[in-house]
Design a protein that fits this description.
heterodimer, A: about 140 residues, 5-stranded antiparallel beta sheet, about 30% strand, elongated, B: about 150 residues, mainly beta
Chain lengths: ~140, ~150
């Protein structure tokens, strides 16, 4: 069950969601599903010629992982806004851990709305993506 | 990037939000939520049917990619997707026929110690459904570096 607006507090957090070790096959699958055919994400020869140690994952793939953390936690259709910043690249073999927490509970005209922050970090604790979201919760 | 593209609005285009695409996309992000997979389950929820995952509509912006073409990027390997934002005004459902319209909001310049001179483009896309209701707004920030970021 999603949290109710009346019970939710700043600092509340869902259990972390862990993805990985990630594979090239997952990147290729996301390329097909998302139409992101930037060769840096599926063509190792091209990626290396462009100075990368391997193909790397799409920011929106990590963004999809974080969005799933939020919808599993807050409920389907609860998000009213979602923003993500792509901080660093991630690679085959990486393990990404997605976390989130409540940073604000709306008052007055914003009653019913909560603010959250989220991030995905790799196995070394390096931030891959961070962002913030607004969600509408039932009382 | 061609800084003169800032402020340009592009012709709207239509696309279908198909159930199979929603399933394929949810599988690609490892999301087994039945609201994306199971029509009978989804019909019994307050949303009344299969819906689009929060980041799905970004996938409809590669083709035709009119705003991206207008940036006249010389080499896309110098382009970084810096930021992505969505505003959700109404649920997008399987079967919806959406109309997307892109606008280049701004193109600005900035100096970066790590990546040299940067050009930063913000592209906004509004999505209306088949009833004319605005359902979602997406904003993406593309950054062109003057040198490649090595890893």
């Amino acid at each position: 069950m999603p949290p109710s607006f009346n019970a939710v507090k700043v600092g509340d957090a869902p259990p972390p969601l862990v993805y990985g070790p990630l594979t090239r096959t997952q990147f290729v699958r996301y390329a097909g599903a998302s139409h992101d055919f930037n060769p840096n994400h599926h063509d190792e020869v091209y990626a290396k010629a462009n100075g990368n140690k391997a193909v790397f994952g799409m920011g929106m793939l990590a963004g999809g992982f974080c969005a799933r953390l939020l919808t599993d936690w807050l409920g389907d259709g609860a998000l009213t806004r979602l923003r993500m910043r792509f901080a660093s690249r991630f690679w085959p073999g990486d393990v990404l851990t997605c976390t989130a927490r409540v940073t604000g509970v709306g008052e007055g005209a914003r009653a019913g709305l909560i603010e959250c922050e989220f991030s995905a970090v790799n196995q070394d604790g390096e931030v891959i993506i961070r962002g913030d979201a607004t969600a509408s919760l039932a009382p | 990037m061609d800084a003169s593209a800032a402020g340009k609005t592009f012709p709207p285009y239509e696309f279908h939000v198909e159930r199979g695409k929603i399933r394929e996309f949810a599988d690609a992000i490892g999301d087994s939520n039945p609201i994306y997979h199971d029509p009978a389950y989804a019909a019994g929820t307050p949303l009344g049917g299969i819906i689009a995952p929060p980041t799905l509509l970004r996938t409809f912006l590669y083709e035709p990619g009119v705003a991206a073409d207008a940036l006249k990027v010389a080499d896309w390997s110098y382009i970084v997707h810096g930021e992505q934002e969505f505003e959700y005004l109404a649920p997008v459902k399987a079967g919806d026929v959406l109309t997307a319209q892109e606008r280049i909001v701004s193109i600005t310049e900035k100096d970066s110690r790590r990546a040299g001179k940067l050009q930063i483009a913000v592209i906004e896309t509004t999505f209306h459904d088949q009833c004319g209701e605005k359902v979602q707004v997406a904003r993406r920030t593309l950054v062109e570096t003057s040198k490649r970021i090595e890893a």
